[in-house]
Design brief:
Helix content is 46%, strand content 21%. It is an alpha+beta fold and 233 residues long. The strands form two sheets. A six-stranded antiparallel sheet has the order 5-4-3-8-7-6, sandwiched between helices. Strands 1-2 form a two-stranded antiparallel sheet. β6 and β7 form a beta hairpin.
Amino acid sequence: MRQHSGIGVLDKAMTVLHAVAEQPCNLNELCLRTGLPRATAHRLAVGLEVHRLLMRDGDGQWRPGPGLAELSTGAGDSLVEAATLVLPRLREITGESVQLYRREGTHRVCIAALEPPTGLRDTVLVGSRLPMTAGSGAKVLLAWADTAVQRAILPDAAFGERVLTEVRRRGWAQSAAEREPGVASVAAPVRDSGGAVVAAVSVSGPIDRMGRRPGARWAADLLAAAEALHKRL
């Protein structure tokens, strides 16, 4: 349930942020999701854009902005802090986009990301909320989620229980054109000091470069990065 502070404009601004974080949207969609009048939704979104908490892409859709990542750098999240030490090396090895996801309910949230300096890339902004129904990161997080969460998500997923069993067996997941057409990815689970899976570290990029079985190329490097993150937790 969304929290309310009693400060109207602040609560409305947070409603806009949450709506865009769930999925990029245009102004009409933003009004439908938030229930706000068009003028109010537009004014708040533009204000959040000024502060770089939202941004608009080439299609005019609102997306989470880079200011969210900048604000989170001092939040004291040990997992994010570990990612600042591990993800740059993973990006250097693979030459592809790298991300770290954490599950929140039935979504996965990108809590750290780096992109290659040149060439085509799979851009996932920090703070983005993606569905758990497609992609290697989703498979990893769902494979070690509790049964109730799996039952809630699997009916709409692009994969089934058999795939999750295989992910648990080999310790990593891969996907090709599941989350986005033309994008492939491979992911591995990150465990805390007690051995529980708390995140998924992922490499993603164009299928033309990564191939339709990216695990054959990058799984070992993902597992090494996951282990490095685990040691820092």
